């Protein structure tokens, strides 16, 4: 175990995150160092923990106890019910993790799930979600969400908007920026010198020559051609329905899709428990499990830690490549 440890943020304490953190420690305690930023009184207590004075202590205690950098919260943990009094604590833990990453005391950040409504109600949180808040903390205007596993990497160009708004939102500028950030992220954080990028069309059959929509030819294709002239290895626009079988996946490193479900359905079908949310374009490494707070099972011990374990492992791999 060498290098700075990974910072794991607690997320919404009323959800399954803290239960998963303890399970992740059991799986990874002999593999890689990480530390949890949380209120120690919120821990379920299924494993031993040790309080840290600084992140540097994490590697020394990792084999024997879950390393915890304490961050007091205003209220107790109530599994399944988010308390507005704890919203400021959730937000502040994320900011603390970013500070540690920017200062080099953490090699990467892995974020456990937050509950956006609870943050808006309790802390007037002005961001749509984790990604936008992290971008603001990192001083960047835009970041790209990538879902990744050993089987597939996907990037949705437009994310949490109604399907009816996608054609207008899918502008040449947005697509180009998404492709540039994606390519750079694969180069700098995944060690892929010339990423092979496959781009899905917006319409069925990628528009079929204009018979099923004009956006593929008028919006997507010119952007791809321009980037090819710069040396990007890009194919598309491709019919999305033939992009995700095994032989097709072998021909690219990442699939950039037009909208949320076009990207997320394939990866969640192929690897539901192993998918990792990666944010590209930040000045630090950030991964996250690809699930929410799961209030319905919080406190029951049923939460599956597979995605968080995969997210911590991917963060460690990315840190080695950076």
From TrEMBL:
Enzyme Commission no: 1.1.1.262
Record key words, sorted: Cobalt, Cytoplasm, Magnesium, Metal-binding, NAD, NADP, Oxidoreductase, Pyridoxine biosynthesis, Zinc
Metabolic or biological pathway: Cofactor biosynthesis; pyridoxine 5'-phosphate biosynthesis; pyridoxine 5'-phosphate from D-erythrose 4-phosphate: step 4/5
Keyword Amino-acid biosynthesis: no
Binding annotation for substrate: 130-131, 268, 277, 286
Gene3D superfamilies named among the record's database cross-references: Isopropylmalate Dehydrogenase (3.40.718.10)
Compartment(s): Cytoplasm
Pfam families in the record: PdxA
Domain of life: Bacteria
Cofactor: Zn(2+); Mg(2+); Co(2+)
InterPro entries: PdxA (IPR037510), PdxA_fam (IPR005255)
Family note: Belongs to the PdxA family.
Miscellaneous comment in the UniProt entry for this protein: The active site is located at the dimer interface.
Subunit-structure text: Homodimer.
Function: Catalyzes the NAD(P)-dependent oxidation of 4-(phosphooxy)-L-threonine (HTP) into 2-amino-3-oxo-4-(phosphooxy)butyric acid which spontaneously decarboxylates to form 3-amino-2-oxopropyl phosphate (AHAP).
Protein name listed in UniProt: 4-hydroxythreonine-4-phosphate dehydrogenase
Organism of this sequence: Shimia sagamensis
């Amino acid at each position: 175990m060498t290098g700075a440890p990974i910072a794991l943020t607690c997320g919404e304490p009323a959800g399954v995150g803290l239960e998963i953190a303890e399970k992740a420690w059991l799986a990874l305690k002999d593999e890689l160092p990480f530390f949890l930023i949380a209120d120690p009184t919120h821990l379920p207590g299924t494993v031993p923990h040790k309080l840290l004075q600084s992140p540097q202590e994490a590697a020394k205690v990792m084999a024997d106890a879950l390393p915890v950098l304490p961050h007091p919260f205003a209220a107790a943990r109530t599994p399944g019910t988010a308390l507005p009094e704890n919203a400021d604590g959730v937000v502040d833990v994320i900011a603390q993790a970013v500070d540690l990453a920017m200062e080099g005391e953490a090699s990467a950040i892995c974020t456990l799930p937050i509950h956006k409504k609870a943050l808006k109600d309790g802390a007037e949180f002005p961001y749509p979600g984790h990604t936008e808040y992290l971008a603001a903390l990192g001083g960047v205007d835009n970041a790209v969400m990538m879902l990744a596993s050993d089987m597939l990497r996907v990037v949705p160009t437009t994310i949490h908007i109604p399907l009816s708004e996608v054609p207008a939102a899918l502008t040449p500028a947005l697509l180009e920026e998404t492709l540039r950030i994606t390519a750079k992220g694969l180069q700098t954080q995944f060690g892929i010198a010339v990423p092979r990028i496959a781009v899905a069309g917006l319409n069925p059959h990628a528009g079929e020559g204009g018979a099923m929509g004009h956006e593929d030819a008028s919006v997507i294709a010119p952007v791809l051609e321009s980037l090819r002239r710069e040396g990007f290895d890009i194919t598309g626009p491709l019919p999305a329905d033939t992009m995700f079988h095994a032989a097709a996946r072998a021909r690219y490193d990442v699939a950039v899709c037009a909208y949320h479900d076009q990207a997320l359905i394939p990866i969640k079908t192929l690897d539901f428990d192993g998918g990792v949310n990666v944010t590209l374009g930040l000045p630090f490494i950030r991964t996250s499990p690809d699930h929410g707070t799961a209030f319905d099972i919080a406190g029951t011990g049923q939460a599956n830690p597979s995605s968080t374990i995969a997210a911590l492992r991917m963060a460690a791999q990315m840190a080695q490549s950076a």
